[in-house]
Design goal:
The complex is a heterodimer of chains A (252) and B (228). With 252 residues, chain A is mostly helical. Chain A has helices spanning 2-11, 13-35, 39-73, 78-81, 87-124, 127-142, 148-179, 186-212, 215-218, 222-248. Chain A has two domains: 1-146; 147-252, no CATH class. Chain B is built from nine helices and ten strands. Chain B has helices at 40-48, 67-72, 88-98, 104-113, 127-139, 157-170, 184-188, 208-215, 219-227; strands at 2-11, 14-24, 29-33, 55-60, 63-64, 73-76, 145-149, 176-180, 193-198, 201-207. Chain B has a six-stranded mixed β-sheet with strand order 6-7-8-3-9-10, sandwiched between helices. Chain B has a four-stranded antiparallel β-sheet with strand order 2-1-4-5, covered by helices on one side. Chain B starts with a strand and ends with a helix. Classes of the chains: A mainly alpha (252), B alpha/beta (228).
Chain lengths: 252, 228
């Protein structure tokens, strides 16, 4: 599966290079601002970096979905369907690639951010105040006091929800390709299928947390973990559903 | 080697292939003949595992079409299908990564013989060069079955000779080749057997020499008779 993952990453390499270059430019702006004591430059550098981090994660997920769509509707599909690999490996490679991209991009931007914070501290000598300020900002954004459990929850939830989103989109595209192979507006149909599936998932998650398992029966904050568990189950179902359709129904 | 029983594929209301019974034997070169829409590509793609049959069955070495058959079957499509970012060298690396029977040395030799350059981008090649690249990638495999869909399409006469030479070189007792083409006269000299498809149905199949003697006509003349 490693080779499949390698080629999945290669297919989307250009966007990663562009993001890397823009991140490098933002860092140059930041450090120049720090060196010449120009807070506007430093703030601009950090600002570009923050926006880029979120935009990159969104774009890479979107690109994974577009690449998958092309893998089904263009002749490029032969690159995957002619090789002696089963569909569990092919879809699994896409799932792991999505997971790795989110994890690595997130980690890279956090690492850059930490380096920037330490650079400011080294220059200004206010590391403790800086860390407190960052913690306060995060707590305001998250709406909860930050501790290790909450940080683990947030990172896990982002990963699960994001990968589930990509896999559900892939399932919707596969369903529309299976059922409406020769129809126009397949893209619109895929979007419609995705919306229906996502609404169903939300209904199930709401029903389970309200009627079967909740914070009242399981303890404080259990709702959030149950919600994430339901999304994880949906992620696995999307993986098996997509693979089954590709294996048994799809002609390219 | 390949056995199709009542094999069929239906798209919406139209049958692209219908009730085809056909056996492809080891060590032979087959010409798969028929005009556009006769079902040649559909048949090849079903054996390659790209299309699922609507009816009937197809097996390779008595087993289903799947991961194991894909290890032994080399299919070359009419259209280019390599990823946009790939150079000719990348194509070789991709095939080497996924096909155990792929020979990098043979690929390099074929690329050199066909006047292609490893650094060239696959998507920027002319149609003739792209056809040569597809042939090189396919024929560099040591497969049991090669299926070449219109390998001579849009190719000039010099390149045609190069491609036919590369095809004939791999033929042997344990190899089977299936070649589809409109250029029947080019194929007649190299094939052992012929398969005529018309509007998705099998109309004639057999040993090329026996067919010629039995019908008293060349394959080219028969082609004109069947499809005129």
């Amino acid at each position: 599966m490693g080779k499949l993952i390698k080629y999945e990453l290669k297919k989307q390499m250009l966007s990663k290079i562009i993001v890397g270059v823009v991140a490098a430019i933002s860092q140059v702006i930041f450090f120049v601002g720090l060196l010449i004591d120009n807070p506007d430059w430093s703030a601009s550098g950090i600002g570009i970096l923050s926006i880029l981090g979120f935009a990159a994660m969104f774009y890479f997920s979107f690109e994974t979905i577009v690449t998958y769509s092309n893998d089904l509707k263009t002749k490029q599909s032969y690159m995957l369907f002619l090789i002696p690999r089963n569909m569990y490996q092919v879809v699994g490679a896409k799932m792991i690639t999505t997971f790795l991209q989110i994890l690595l991009v997130g980690a890279a931007f956090v690492a850059i951010f930490v380096v920037d914070v330490f650079a400011i501290s080294a220059k200004k000598g206010e590391i403790k105040e800086m860390i407190e300020m960052i913690k306060m900002i995060f707590e305001q954004i998250a709406g909860i006091p930050l501790n290790t459990t909450e940080i683990i929850y947030i990172v896990s939830a982002v990963l699960v929800v994001w990968v589930e989103f990509v896999l559900m989109c892939m399932l919707a595209i596969t369903l529309s390709t299976t059922l409406f192979a020769n129809k126009r507006y397949k893209g619109v149909i895929s979007f419609g299928i995705y919306v229906v599936l996502q609404i169903l998932l939300e209904k199930v998650a709401d029903y389970v947390t309200k009627n079967m398992m909740s914070s009242e029966t399981l303890g404080l904050n259990a709702d959030s973990w149950i919600y994430m568990g339901i999304y994880a189950v949906a992620m696995v179902l999307c993986y098996f559903g997509t693979t089954w359709l590709l294996d048994k129904r799809i002609s390219v | 080697m390949v056995e199709a029983n009542k094999l069929g594929k239906k798209y919406m209301r139209r049958w692209a292939l219908r009730d085809v019974d056909l056996v492809l034997e080891k060590g032979k070169i087959y010409a798969l003949l028929g005009p556009n829409g006769s079902g040649k590509t559909t048949f090849m793609k079903m054996v390659a595992g790209l299309i699922k049959p609507t009816s009937g069955t197809v097996t390779f070495n008595n087993g289903p079409i799947g991961v194991e058959s894909k290890k032994r079957v080399a299919y070359m499509s009419t259209e280019p299908f390599f990823y946009a970012y790939m150079t000719i060298k990348d194509v070789g690396k991709y095939f080497a990564d996924f096909f155990e029977d792929f020979s990098v040395e043979k690929y390099e030799e074929l690329i050199s013989r066909m006047d292609l350059h490893m650094e060239d981008k696959a998507k920027e090649l002319s149609s003739g060069q792209a056809a040569k690249l597809k042939i090189a990638a396919t024929m560099a495999r040591d497969a049991q079955l090669y299926m070449l869909d219109e390998p001579l399409n849009g190719i000039d006469i010099i390149a045609r000779e190069q491609i036919l030479k590369a095809i004939v070189e791999v033929a042997g007792e344990d190899k089977t080749l299936v070649i589809s083409s409109h250029l029947v006269d080019e194929l007649e000299a190299i094939v052992d057997s012929v398969v005529f498809l018309k509007q998705g149905s099998l109309v004639l199949a057999g040993d090329a020499e026996e067919v010629r003697i039995e019908r008293g006509k060349s394959i080219v003349e028969l082609y004109k008779e069947v499809y005129a």
